[in-house]
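Order emerges. For instance:

***
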Amino acid sequence: MINMDILELKLFWQYVDYWAHIDPNFPSIRYGKKIINAKELDEQSDKLAQALLHIGVEKGDTVVTVLPTIPEFILTFLAASKIGGITIPMDKEYKKADFQSLIPHSDPKVIITIDKWDKNKIADTLEELKNEFGEIEYIMVGKHHLGTKFEEIMEQEYNLEDDLQKAKENQDEEDTILVIWTGGTTGAPKPVELTHKNIIQMCLREFDSIFTSLASAGYSPEDHRIPSLVNLPVSHVGGAVELLGTGIIAGLQMIVQASWSPWDSLKAMRKYHIHFMGGVPTMFKIFLSLPDLDNYQPKKYLNLVVMSGEKVNMELLKGIKERICEHISIGYGSTEAGSETTFTEPGIKFEKLARGYVGKALPGQEIIIVDEDGNELPHGEEGQIYIRGSLIAKSYYKMPEKNKEEFKEDGFCKTGDLGYKDEKGGLYITGRIKQIIRVGAYTVYPTEIEELALSHPKVAIAAALGAPDEIKGEVVWLVIGPELGVKFDDSDKEELEKMFQKNLAKYAVPKNIIVYPLDPNDLPITRIGKVDRVRLKKELISKQTES
C-alpha cells in the first residue's frame, strides 16, 4: 500500500501551488475534451485572483457564483481564496424568490453566472433584479449581455502580482473562504461559514478513510493521484468540499461534469477506470433502475462505493453489491458539523448498515448523544446528536442569533438528528428532529413551500411533507386547507402549481397537492392549532398504500 501522508498545509489554495510544483504537467482537471494541468490551474487561478483584485475585491468580500460544476467555478473558488475572498455558490436551479432572499444577505461584490440552465433563465432573472441588489460587478460565463465575459476577464493583463502576493500572505487558517446556504428561500436556510482549516481537515480525513477502505477492498495503486469524479452541485457541501475540495487537496485527476447524470458517471468510470464513487443513496437507486446498467460493467472497475445523506436499506445494499460494487462504506455529517464526521470501518455487515450504522467519529471529532435538556445519555439510548471538533463550521454568516441556537459555548454543534451510540462508540442514525425534506441530494424546507402556498388568496392553511419515493428517497407533498366556505377547484390548483414552478427550484415543487376541508375533525391539528405533520403524513401515506 502506498504512503497516504499528504502534506498538511495551512491554507486551501496552497495545495494548488504545491501540486503545480510537484508535477506541473499532471492533468488536474478533465472537462469534456478540455484538460487543465496542475501548472495551468495555478496560473489561471492566479490570473483570476488578480482580476478580482482589479475589480476591488478585498479580504472578507464575497463572490457569489450561480454556476454548474464546471472549471470556471473551480477557478473562481481558488482565485477568491487566494486573495482572502469568500465564495458563496448558489444553485443553478434557483429562481427569483431564492435570489431575492439569498443575494442581499450574501452581499456580494461580484456575481459570476451562466446564461441559463435547462429552462431556468438565470441571467434574465438576475438582470430583472439588478436594481434591487445595488452596485455589483457581473461576470458572464456565456453570451448574455448582463456582464463582462469570463473569457475576456481571463485574457487581460493586470500586473498585480505584488498585490496578489500580499493578499496571500495576509491570511490565516481560521479565515472563512466558503459559505454554503443549507436550503431554499423564506428565511429558513442558513449560510454556513467554512474556513481553510475546516475544508483541509475534512478532506484529509475523508480521503484517508477512502484509501483505507480501498486497500481493504484489494486496490492499492502505485500513486494515490487516481481519477475522481467531481459531478455533484457545488452549491452543496458534498460537491464543493467532499468531491472538489478533496480532489484539490489530494492532487487527484478530477473528472469534472457539469451535473450528475447516471450515464455520464458510468461512461467516465469506464473510460478513466475510476475506482471509487460517492453519492447519496438516491443516485445508486437510479443506477440500479437503468436497464442497460450491466453493459457498463461497473463491478469491473469500481472497488468502493461511498454513500451518505440518507439511511440505506438492505435491498439497496444487496443491489449495489450484486450489480455495482462489492464494497460499500457509509459516512455521516452535515454542512455545519463537517460533511463527513463518521466513516464505517471496512467489512461491516450489511445488516448493521441497514440498522442505521454510520461508523465511528473521524480523528479529532467527538460525538455525544443528549436528551431534551442537553444531558449526555449512556450508550444505547436515543437522543439528539451533538458533534465537536476541527470540522465544525466557524459560524453562520451574518446570523449571530442562529449561532446561539445551533453552536454551544462548549464547542458542540447541534445536528438536529436523532441517534444512539453502541458500547464501542459506533453511531447509529434513527431519524431527524428538524422538519426538513430530503429530495435526493437536496434539502427542502417546508416553510418555503407553505409560505408561498399561503400567498394564494384561497389557501388558509398549508403543510409540506416529505413522502417516500423509491428513487429520490423523498418527494414533496403539499396539504392545503381552503378558506372556510370557499371552493377550491381544479383551476385554483393549476394556478397554485404554476406559482410553485415559477418561484421554486425544480426539486422543491410539490409532486402532489392534497386539498383538505379546513375542519379539525378531518385535518389533523395539534392542541395549539398547528397541523400535526407526523399524524398527517402517516394518514396520507397509509391511504396512498391502500389505494
Remarks:
- The longest helix spans residues 196-216.
